[in-house]
């Protein structure tokens, strides 16, 4: 029994108990939504600890998102008691790698103050490289994005620049081949130059984090010895793993093979980002003596919800030949379908319905609105706000999009890593830097001698004294010096406020609302670098899913979660399934799994809505629109498919 007095194996069914009491050797838990995969992971950790097979810090539980890692930690604290639960190491892939690299990256010449680049940083960096190396027009974002997607796909594949064939070859995955064609020669040149600029700027992107951590583990015995302290490795949601992540897991488990993975191929929704569900399917074949456990009973949803969940992935069943229709806990309400003449009406109706159920005593935190994209949540969000209902949104980037916030965060980044060229580019127009000046700074960064503020200072000194040029460089270097010295402010919020003052000049004016939120969010962080990392890898401004608010989320971000009631607005053909997904057979299958993930988040209540005349073909399959309509919708679908 654990310190909290809870029996780790209490109330589990036979298969769950077998999985939770498994001790040594590889284990694969393969089962559908809501069958208790994550529960079993938590119970197994509790069992290992309470039976003294392992100390809590000898167990590493990896998830795909920070949110999932946080939830895992909470469940462990409940199970094991606060103190013991805290000691188990839970992390997501990217944070785990970032931490390893910060502490040991110097062994492979990665400076500890490296910045983490997001997609928009990469795009601006690549645009500069494209121009200076005549790769394509810096305005040609379609080509630039195609290049970035392909570089990232190679990295997820575990291939580095020197391993990739230098001539055109049968591409990686179907999706990538369909992208606007970029010749292999252009691709490799762009990759090489972008890498050089990133290295000079001490910057890594998400893909680099995993690739470099893997490289570090391969090369450095000291780091291998450190991670060997994790004697039990567990990974949730393995269906969304990419080849490079899989290699990382293999490196972590080397020597003991105590690796337990759980997943459900019906919920594989990241193939567009190089996840490979086959990796999970092949797991037993690639690990000696791997035990495979299947869980059959769903504990989350009513039979009506599951029927819909099953039906939407039926075409996949025929493909993989597996029979795994889920059976639910009990009978419940029939799922509801409504159709509206406008998005606004749809949103208003949803808000009214939610308001009524909250009025009737339903907990707001048990209600979720799930959409294909964040944009698809906007109308409902507004309607709920108008109805006076509070919401919380996963991956709400609105605050981060605010100009003052962007500027402050870029300033913070530059103060932590003075070579962060992408951060400088974000600040360039606020700093009043001209195109020529940006070019000179870029040269200095690439030359690798000076940091960015040092380069500005040197260029100021080199300019003809008293000239207009000297005056410009002086202004620039003074501002840059002021920004980087905010590092010594003592607290992260104070540094953010100071950066805002540097740009606005006035000290008295109130901070913009968005920036105030950012300061609040920064409060718990002692070091700016940790705050920036938390933002880069987990942009939702809250550990507050625990708060009792209606949850707004994309379907992707709702993976693994459950809610009493789930609303799925925007079930229109071209939205879910998305027009893009309809364009390829692969995309069509993945889209079904996405719908399956959304439906299976619901415990008892499921509400589907669409716009009249634009109804999703899925609705006909689920039996909500009559079959005469079905053909019309199908035809519309085909038209869309042809258009893409
Ligand atoms: P997903 O595929 O969506 O990630 P999952 O397989 O990880 O789902 P869990 O989230 O672990 O499933 O469990 C789903 C729900 O079922 C949870 O509310 C959990 O508490 C409950 N549950 C799991 N096992 C049992 C059990 N043996 N008895 C009662 N409830 C259970
Ligand atoms: Mg789960």
From TrEMBL:
Write out the GO biological process terms.
recombinational repair
The record ties this protein, via CDD domains, to: DEXQc_UvrD (cd17932)
Under which EC number(s) is this enzyme classified? 5.6.2.4
Looking at the record, the residues that make up the UvrD-like helicase C-terminal domain are 303-560
Q: Which reaction does it catalyse?
A: ATP + H2O = ADP + phosphate + H(+); Couples ATP hydrolysis with the unwinding of duplex DNA by translocating in the 3'-5' direction
Domain named UvrD-like helicase ATP-binding: which ranges? 10-302
Residues recorded as binding ATP, renumbered to this chain, are 31-38
Q: Do you know which Pfam families this protein is assigned to?
A: UvrD-helicase, UvrD_C
UniProtKB keywords:
ATP-binding, DNA-binding, Helicase, Hydrolase, Isomerase, Nucleotide-binding
SUPFAM superfamilies hit by this protein: P-loop containing nucleoside triphosphate hydrolases
InterPro entries linked: DExx_box_DNA_helicase_dom_sf (IPR013986), DNA_helicase_UvrD-like_C (IPR014017), DNA_helicase_UvrD/REP (IPR000212), P-loop_NTPase (IPR027417), UvrD-like_ATP-bd (IPR014016)
Q: Where are the transmembrane segments?
A: none
* MF GO annotations: 3'-5' DNA helicase activity; ATP binding; ATP hydrolysis activity; DNA binding
Family assignment? Belongs to the helicase family. UvrD subfamily.
Name by which UniProt lists this protein? DNA 3'-5' helicase
């Amino acid at each position: 029994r654990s310190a909290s007095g809870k029996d780790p194996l209490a109330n589990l069914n036979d298969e769950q108990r077998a999985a939770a009491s498994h001790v040594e050797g590889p284990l694969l838990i393969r089962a559908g939504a809501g069958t208790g995969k994550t529960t079993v992971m938590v119970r197994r950790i509790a069992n290992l600890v309470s039976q003294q097979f392992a100390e809590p810090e000898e167990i590493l539980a990896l998830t795909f998102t920070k949110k999932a890692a946080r939830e895992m930690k909470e469940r462990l604290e409940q199970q094991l008691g606060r103190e013991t639960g805290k000691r188990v190491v839970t992390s997501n892939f990217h944070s785990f790698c970032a931490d390893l690299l910060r502490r040991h990256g110097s062994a492979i010449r990665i400076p500890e103050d490296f910045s983490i680049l997001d997609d928009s940083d990469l795009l601006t960096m690549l645009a500069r490289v494209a121009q200076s190396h005549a790769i394509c027009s810096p305005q040609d974002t379609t080509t630039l994005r195609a290049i970035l997607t392909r570089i990232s796909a190679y990295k997820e594949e575990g291939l580095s620049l020197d391993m990739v064939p230098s001539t055109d070859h049968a591409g990686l995955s179907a999706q990538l081949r369909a992208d606007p064609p970029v010749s292999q020669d252009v691709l490799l040149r762009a990759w090489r130059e972008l890498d050089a600029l990133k290295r000079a700027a001490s910057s890594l992107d998400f893909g680099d984090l995993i690739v470099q951590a893997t490289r570090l583990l391969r090369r450095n015995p000291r780091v291998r010895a450190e991670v060997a302290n994790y004697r039990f490795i567990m990974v949730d949601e393995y269906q969304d793993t990419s080849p490079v992540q899989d290699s990382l897991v293999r490196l972590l488990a080397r020597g003991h093979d105590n690796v337990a993975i759980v997943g459900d191929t019906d919920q594989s929704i990241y193939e567009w980002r190089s996840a490979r569900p086959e990796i999970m399917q092949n797991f037993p074949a690639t690990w000696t003596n791997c035990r495979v456990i299947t869980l059959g009973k769903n504990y989350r949803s009513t039979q009506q919800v599951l029927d819909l969940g099953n039906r939407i992935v039926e075409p996949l069943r025929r493909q993989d030949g597996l029979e795994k229709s889920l059976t639910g806990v009990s009978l419940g309400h029939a799922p509801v379908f409504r159709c509206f003449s406008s998005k606004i009406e749809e949103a208003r109706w949803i808000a009214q319905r939610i308001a009524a159920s909250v009025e009737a005593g339903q907990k707001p935190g048990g209600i979720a609105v799930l959409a294909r994209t964040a944009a698809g949540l906007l109308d409902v969000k507004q309607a709920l706000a108008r109805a006076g209902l509070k919401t919380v949104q996963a991956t709400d980037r609105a605050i981060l999009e605010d100009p003052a916030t962007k500027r402050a965060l870029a300033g913070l980044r530059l103060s932590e890593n003075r070579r962060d060229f992408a951060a400088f580019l974000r600040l360039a127009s606020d700093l009043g830097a001209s195109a020529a000046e940006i070019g000179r700074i870029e040269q200095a960064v690439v030359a690798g001698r000076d940091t960015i503020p040092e380069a500005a200072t040197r260029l100021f000194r080199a300019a003809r004294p008293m000239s207009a040029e000297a005056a410009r460089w002086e202004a620039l270097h003074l501002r840059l010096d002021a920004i980087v010295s905010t590092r010594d402010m003592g607290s992260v919020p104070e540094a953010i406020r100071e950066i805002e003052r540097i740009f606005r000049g006035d000290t008295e004016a109130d901070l913009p609302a968005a920036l105030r939120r950012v300061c609040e969010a920064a409060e718990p962080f002692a070091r700016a670098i940790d705050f920036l990392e938390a933002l880069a890898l987990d942009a939702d401004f809250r550990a507050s899913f625990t708060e009792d608010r209606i949850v707004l989320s994309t379907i992707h971000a709702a993976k693994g979660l459950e809610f009493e009631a789930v609303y799925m607005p925007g079930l229109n053909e071209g939205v879910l399934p998305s027009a893009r997904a309809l364009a390829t057979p692969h995309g069509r299958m993945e889209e079904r799994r996405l719908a399956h993930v959304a439906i299976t988040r619901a415990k008892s209540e499921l509400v589907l809505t669409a716009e009249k005349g634009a109804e999703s073909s899925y609705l006909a399959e689920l039996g909500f629109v009559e079959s005469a309509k079905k053909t019309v919708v199908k035809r519309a679908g085909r038209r869309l498919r042809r258009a893409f």
